[in-house]
Every structure is written in structure tokens, then in C-alpha cells.
């Protein structure tokens, strides 16, 4: 296993401080703030530690304050309910004595039931598509320092965009995005771990898709983009070390906010998870 992938798995392992209180490390992936996917993945890890054999089927989270990438995060888990089939957990992430994030997650004892799913979009496979870090260097050189460091940061994932990634100069495009994602190597056969990594991945490109129909200039100093809330529904098991198609669309932007929905599909077309996210998108004069 490569060091960068091993570091991701270590990041999603939390230290138990007390009953239902855990601490996680933070990583700087090219921005001043903690990446939202890190907090999502760690919060889900903390909740999963208290759920026994039950599997997460949904989570709903709010981002309250920007996280400090240079400080650890403490996760407090409230065992809200344990029923016959479902368990509910509430998680608060605390940093520097203040809550920066909260989440509710529901876990279910595995069972059989009715089964249907929408079809995967008809798009090209990952073969022949370039990883985001393989795109022309001159494109990245035009970006602001913060965005360039984030885009060029060495990650434990491969990202291959189906639609051409055009940042500078900005272009107007349909409010949808398709990208193939997987870890850069195999990870252990632990279904909870794969769900936690999927939660981490689910924060990529959602609100950014709401900017596509507006031809927003990412080099503008007056652009503000920040996640407000995030939800994930886990439908079926999957492996994040095999290619997953992340299909994203944005139905609306208004009132200084943008909304986006996403779906994860396996290579053979199985729908494994759905996501939703709303974020601030402001052009401040």
C-alpha cells in the first residue's frame, strides 16, 4: 500500500478518549480549512464505532464553522436510540472548544426487501480519460495559489472527468458533471471502511457543479464557496478501490446558495449511494 493511501486509512481511524468520545487527526490537502470530506468520514467512523453490526444507511450533516487543518478534532457521539432494527446516532465535531460540525446518522440491521434502482448514465468509461493531475500544466498555472494547491495536491484517489475540466478561462456549461473515482490502490475488505471512504469522497465537486451554468471566474477574489449541509444515503455495498461513477447535477441556485445532487454507480451500473449538498455561492462586489 502506498504511503498516501495508508495515511488516508490512518486518518479515518480515531482514538477513543472516553466512552463515545473520539479524536481524529487533521490533514492539509492544499487549503487553509479542513476538507469537509475528512470531517464527514471521521464523524461516520465515530458513529460506526458505537453501532455494532448495524450498517449506516443515511447521514445528514451541517457544517457550522471552518475547521483548522493544523489541529485535531474531537467527536462526541450521542446514542440517541437503539430500536429493534434501527439505531440513531448524533455526532458533534469540536475543535478549539467550539462545535464546527454536527451530524445525525441512522444504522440498520441488514435485511432483504423490494429492490429497484435508476439506470447509470450512458457515459464513457474511465479508460482513456486523464486524471485531474495529468491535465495541462498551463491550465493550473493560471489558477489562484489556494485553488492550484488544492487541485495539484497528491491524493489517495484517482479522479477522471468525463466532461473536459475547463477552469480558466471560465465557460458556461450544463449544471451536471460526471467523474470516475477510486482509491489509487486496494484497501482492506471491511465494508464499514469502504462506506467511510465513500463519505469522504462524497464531498468532491457537488457545489462546484452549481457554478457551471454561470461561467464563474475562479480567479475572482470576490468568489465565496462554502458547504452548508450534506446528506448521503447508502443503498448497496461497494468497493471504493474499484471505479465508481459520480454523476452530479444541480437543479437550482438562488439566494446566494447552490444545490446539487449526486449518485455513485459501480462499473456494472449498480447504484450504491446518493448524495445531496447545499452551499454558499456568492460573488461579493
**Share of residues in strands:** 35-45%
Shape: globular
The helix/strand class is alpha+beta
The helicity comes to 10-25%
Total count of strands: 12
Radius of gyration: 18 Å
Largest sheet: 12 strands, antiparallel
Mean pLDDT: 92
* Spatial strand arrangement across the major sheet: 1-2-4-5-6-3-9-12-11-10-8-7
* Assembly level: single chain
Q: What low-confidence regions span 5 or more consecutive residues with pLDDT below 50?
A: none
| SSE arrangement, N to C | HEEHEEEEHHEEHHEEEE
Number of helices: 6
* Span of the ends, CA to CA: 47 Å
Write the SSE topology:
Layout: H1 3-11, E1 15-18, E2 21-24, H2 36-49, E3 55-63, E4 73-82, E5 86-95, E6 98-108, H3 137-141, H4 145-152, E7 157-161, E8 176-183, H5 191-201, H6 206-209, E9 223-234, E10 244-254, E11 257-266, E12 271-283
Helix pairs in contact: 2-5
What does this structure look like?
- The structure is a single chain.
- With 285 residues, the chain is an alpha+beta fold.
- Helix content is 18%, strand content 38%.
- It is built from six helices and twelve strands.
- It has a twelve-stranded antiparallel beta sheet.
- A hairpin with a 2-residue loop joins strand 1 (15-18) and strand 2 (21-24).
